[in-house]
Amino acid sequence: MNQHITVPLVFQAPPPEQMAADHLQRRVTQFLVDAFPEDPVVRPKVRVYRFLEEAMELAQAMGVTRWQAFKLLWYVFGRPVGDVKQELGGTVFTLVGVANSLGTNIIREGHASVDEAYGRIDKIRAKSKTKPRAW
User: Partner of 30 at 20 to 30 A CA spacing, among 8, 66, 78, 130?
Assistant: First the structure.
C-alpha cells in the first residue's frame, strides 16, 4: 500500500514573478554589466573564481574550518575533472539543499543580494580591484 508522506517546506515561496530562475539570472547579468562595463561578464574563469570565493565564505559562515576546507580541496583536485554542465547542475542542486536546510529560498536570497549590491556598487567596484585575480 502506497502511503503519501507530506514534508512541510520551511520557507515561504517568493512571489511568482521572482520564482523564475531566468529572471534572477537576467538581473545578475545586468548588475554585472552595470557594475563592470569594461569587463566582459561572459568570462567564465572570472565568474567561477568569484563563485568559489562566495562558496568558501558561505562554508566559513556555516562553521567549516580552514582545515576542513583544505582537506576538501585536496580531495576534489585529486579526482578526475568533471563535465562543466553536470558540475553546474550538481552545484545548484546542492545549494538548494543548503538553502532548504537553512529554511530559506535561493531565489529570494538572490534577489535580495542583487538589490543590496546596487546599493553599494561603488564599494563593490573598489573591493573588486583588491581581490586576487583568476588569470
Answer: 130
